[in-house]
Amino acid sequence: MTTNINAAVPDNHFFGDVCKFFDHAATFTKHDAGLLDQIKSCNSVYRFRFPIRKGNGFEVIDAWRVEHSHHQSPTKGGIRYSEMVNEDEVMALAALMTYKCAIVNVPFGGAKGGIRINPKNYTVGELENITRRYTVELIKKNFIGPSIDVPAPDYGSGEREMSWIADTYATMNPGQLDAMGAVTGKPIALQGIAGRREATGRGVAIAIRECVSVGEDMLKLGLTAGISGKKVIVQGLGNVGYHSAKFLTEFGALIVGLCEFEGAIYNADGLDIEAVFQHRKATGSILGYPGAIEFKNSMEGLEQPCDILVPAALENQITIENITRIQAKIIAEGANGPTTPEAEAVFYQNGGLIIPDMYANAGGVTVSYFEWLKNLSHVAFGRMNRRFEENSNLNLVNMVEGITGVALNSAQRSSIIKGASELELVNSGLEDTMIRSYHEIRETFINTQGIDTLRTAAFVGAINKIAVSYQNLGVWP
Ligand code: NAD
């Protein structure tokens, strides 16, 4: 354990905020103080620097990989490409991954990586060099591998970067059968899995739909039950924000506001997310989108009238400074750490509800887990049983039609007969995970005396599960 590393981090930053949430939740458990300290601490923090060629010269890149908890192997977490990345942030994000995996019953410890660059300032070739060198540095220290530590995309990285990592790892480990399981979020052609790209946003949308489906909770917030017609503002139009907005629209919600770093747009009658996305692609900005009110200061966009606010960009967006101007009744945290502990307390005092990051955005790691399983089993989900299921279903339909004399039309027949595709199985597993986990957290919230927030309830559940792992390992009595 590396308590000295943790002690070196000031208490008032992102990791400090995560620890504050943890300490508060721990008061609702009965675990030994030493065990709680072990669960909370980052087990391994690897900071490194490496040079790359840039233009006619060289540049030295700062990078990190933090494995927060080894109570399960492998550890798992994305790699952030951002010029704001620092050690405290990577530690906080790694810790959140541990709790997130426990909440959704994914058998991984938490980890996170960071590369301090603004990807927009580098050519594709330079980004590839950086990513491959980063991977080599992890390999040198045994910080990556299908049974050790498995990276994934995060802010600023995606399928392209994951394929460079997979290729570098496989090249450096010739003959390792499970090499592709060393990283998830890969393109499907490189043994990725259907549905991973949109999984986090889909999970956020399911989490919101589940939350607003509980009538008695909505009554307390002064909202009607059900997702239909709920007005939503989304911050960040990247992977998580775009897909959250897309699936919320599909579920019947109305996206009324979108905030990006260049500004925000708002239309109480609803925005067409796909059209805004295309407008931004064509013009480089969401501003100028026809028919919307504009805010040059993007943060003003968060404060407009709506039922639900989905911060899906970065941490520390909702603070004590702006919380009283937020008009939403529900904040659903697509991003990691968007709300500070102080802001959360005020929001709840004012009658609001927060669906916490460690649950709300867990769809990504859930489907990453499915991808890892696919890589270890070397077979796509559905491949063995799809045709068998279709034949069985066909026999059943034929038999029922024969007995009843009722003939189904071709659409009805094919919807009953069809065996599940990989995407359908992935989406089913994701939906089941998000729905079950929400009710597990809510049960703790309702049934634990004195508990104040859904986040505390989520932490309590995670702490209890991780404590059991340590007890099962024989590390703690
Ligand atoms: P991304 O890079 O795809 O998108 C982030 C978007 O936020 C970009 O469009 C960026 O321009 C925008 N943005 C940046 N600063 C902003 C600001 N101040 N105001 C408004 N918009 C701003 O990143 P992502 O993968 O969507 O990740 C977003 C958040 O979700 C991060 O906190 C990340 O840790 C978290 N998350 C991501 C995943 C995943 O699978 N990608 C999984 C879990 C959690």
Summed up:
This protein is of the alpha/beta class.
**The CATH architecture of the largest domain:** 3-Layer(aba) Sandwich
Main sheet: strand order: 9-8-7-6-10-11-12
Distance N terminus to C terminus? 18 Å
Order of secondary-structure elements: HHHEEEHEHEHHHEHEEHEHEEHEHHHHHH
Q: Given the structure, what is the number of helices? A: 18
pLDDT < 50 stretches: 1-12
| CATH C-level category of the largest domain | Alpha Beta
Q: What helical percentage do the residues reach?
A: 40-55%
Cα radius of gyration in angstroms: 23 Å
Give me the CATH superfamily of the largest domain.
Answer: NAD(P)-binding Rossmann-like Domain
Say how many strands there are: 12
Mean pLDDT: 95
Q: Structural class, from secondary structure content? A: alpha/beta
CATH topology-level fold name of the largest domain: Rossmann fold
Sketch the major β-sheet: 7 strands, mixed
Percent range for β-strand residues = 5-15%
Shape: globular
**Number of self-contained structural domains:** 2
How would you describe what is shown here?
The chain has about 475 residues and is α/β, with parallel strands linked by helices. The chain folds into 2 domains: about 45-190, Leucine Dehydrogenase, chain A, domain 1 (Rossmann fold, 3-Layer(aba) Sandwich); about 195-380 and about 420-475, Rossmann fold, CATH 3.40.50.720. About 45% of the residues lie in helices and about 15% in strands. The strands form 2 sheets. It has a 7-stranded mixed beta sheet, sandwiched between helices. It has a 5-stranded mixed beta sheet with strand order 1-2-4-3-5. It binds nicotinamide-adenine-dinucleotide.
